[in-house]
Amino acid sequence: MDHPGLNALGHDLMGWLEDELAAASGQPVLLTSAARAFCAGLDLNLVATLEGQEMKDFLVRLDQLIETLYCYPGPTVSLVSGHAIAGGCVLNLCCDYRIAVSHPRTRIGLNEVALGVTFPPRILQMVQQRVPRRYHERVLMGAALFDVPTSLELGLIDEIVEVDNAETIAKKRLEKLAANPAGAYAATKAVVHGGIGISPEDEDAFYEVAIPVWTHGDVKARVRAALGR
Fold it and tell me: Coil, strand or helix: which one is 49?
């Protein structure tokens, strides 16, 4: 990933990820960043402008992208080389194996609740599957950002590596996963990761409640504060 705003998740980055996953077509995927951060979260400059149907379209697209990455049939490894915040942490959690570079300033976590917003339904289901149950309250409801060692303890990542050999180790982990027969890997992953989704009726009901929350004045004020405005 190499997009503006420390890989802020807006339409450009989402479109790029959609295209890259489609082009990969089940081949092994290493998700990492050319920026100082892995992904700093949603594009708050964009979020601050969205209302009504535009906000719903944005959140639905994000939710569907996360489902695509999480359920991608081939092996996926994330290499977190800087902050992975909110949507960035979500991208990391989607991957089959998650590595973070050791750095004292890096922060990883899900701070959506602190912003005053609710998780889209597929994202929430994925996070509930990936984060150990005993840490749900601390990770989801506590809305804190954690250093790398604490992120390992909480199950947000699987391994910590030093920067000098980070990419080499990430590629080795991916190669090890890819050494398994592709059909068996994909079939097993479909069962393990396949338990997320939402009916059209439930999705409509969720967004009927969620959109007024995401576009509320209090949330807009918190977004502006986060942007330093």
Answer: coil
How many domains, in total, are found in the chain?
Answer: 1
Q: From CA 92, how far away is CA 156, in angstroms rounded?
A: 8
14-66 pLDDT, tens digit per residue, is 999 999 999 999 999 999 999 899 999 999 999 999 999 999 999 999 999 99
Helix axes 121-130, 87-94, angle to 10 degrees: 60
Outline where 71-131 has alpha helix (H): 87-94, 112-115, 121-130
pLDDT at 227: 87
Show the tokens assigned to 85: 């915040």
First-to-last C-alpha distance (Å) of the chain:
27
Check if the beta carbon of residue 103 is closer than 8 Å to that of residue 148: yes
Count the helix, strand and coil residues of the chain and give each as a percent rounded to the nearest 5. Answer: 55, 10, 30
Which stretches within the chain are classed as H helix?
Answer: 4-7, 11-24, 44-47, 52-70, 87-94, 112-115, 121-130, 136, 148-153, 166-178, 182-193, 200-214, 217-226
Indicate which CATH number applies to the domain containing 163: 3.90.226.10
Establish how many alpha carbons lie within 13 A of residue 98's alpha carbon, considering only the half-sphere containing its beta carbon: 24
What domain range is 124 assigned to?
A: 4-226
